[in-house]
Amino acid sequence: MVAFALPYTLHVLAALIWVGGMFLAWLVLCPAMVSTLEGPARLRLWVEVFRRFFGWVWLAVVVLAVSGVGMIHLRFAGFETAPRYVQVMIGGGIVMFALFMRVQALLLPELRAAVQAEDWAAGAGVLARIRRMVGVNLLIGVGVVAVASSRLWV
Ligand code: HEM
Description:
By secondary structure, the chain is an all-alpha fold. The chain has helices at 2-36, 39-75, 84-116, 120-150.
């Protein structure tokens, strides 16, 4: 039981950091910046926010995967015999990671390039696409946490 407590705690903390960070970015930071900063300053600040937050997301992804697989071996016999809510969680986690990779590997470099070139119109377009993608990932993340913690779906 004590052996399970460590991966379980790390797993929930990692989910909290990833989903909570997206919640803050989408529902708090974004509207706060729109009402206080001009376009160029806002885009520069987002580049810096993403650079710092994405480091934590990478850590959360690794911790979620390692602790999740560890818990499956400790509590259930394997992936096939794990309850449905755990399988949904793995599927949701994979989709969340794919969307995160799209932002990290494709959209963020585009945003950086636009800011460096001081092409504010292009930057605003990329930022709007990132915002959509983070919004989708936030919804999936909230759904995964709801499915995991309600355990209705066994
Ligand atoms: C590789 C991906 C993942 C694996 C293998 C995995 C596996 C697991 C396992 C085995 C448990 C314990 C279930 C139990 O004791 O009944 C768990 C719990 C949990 N997971 Fe995941 N998980 C993954 C991804 C995620 C993601 C992406 C999130 C949220 C963003 C998440 C959120 C949670 C939460 C909140 C719990 C605690 C549920 C509770 O007992 O109340 N997991 N996970």
